Amino acid sequence: MRGKIRLRKTVVETWVKGAGPDMNITRLAEEEGIDPGNFSRMMSGDLEPSKPVMKKLLMRTGYSFDALFEFDRNATSDENDKTNDN
Predict the structure, then answer these.
(1) Which of 31, 35, 57, 65 is the most buried (most CB within 10 A)?
(2) How many whole angstroms separate alpha carbon 72 and alpha carbon 30?
(3) Are 86 and 54 in contact (CB under 8 A)?
(4) If you ran DSSP here, which 8-state letter would residue 40 be given?
(5) b or e along 63-80 (b: 16 or more beta carbons within 10 Å of the residue's beta carbon)?
(6) 64 vs 11, 30, 35, 42, 69, CA distance in Å?
């Protein structure tokens, strides 16, 4: 497949800042059952978020799909990469 879904990093960072003084990116990942290392790679755009991760983040933040994610047509998705199941 040509293209890749990416997290909008600045949107996630803004949500984390507004979620309270005890919230940070690592804590968000841990509370949602997402491996923090994989979540870091998702935040940097190196790893495409899986459907379960997308659902967790949409439910947690209350944002629309278009607000939280973007489609990068120029990136390539490795369909054999199974590390994003979490």
Answers:
(1) 57
(2) 27
(3) no
(4) H
(5) beeeebbeeeeeeeeeee
(6) 11, 22, 23, 18, 9
Q: Where does 45-82 have alpha helices with state H? A: 51-61, 65-68
Look up the pTM and report it: 0.81
Q: What SS3 state is found at 74?
A: strand
In tens, the pLDDT along 11-70 reads: 999 999 999 999 999 999 999 999 999 999 999 999 999 999 999 999 999 999 999 999
Q: For residues 71 and 19, what is the distance between their CA atoms, to the nearest angstrom?
A: 26
3-state secondary structure of 64: coil
For residue 55, how many C-alpha atoms fall within 13 Å in the half-sphere facing its CB? Answer: 6
Rounded Cα gap, residues 12 and 10, in angstroms: 5
Residues 6+ apart with CB under 8 A from 27: none
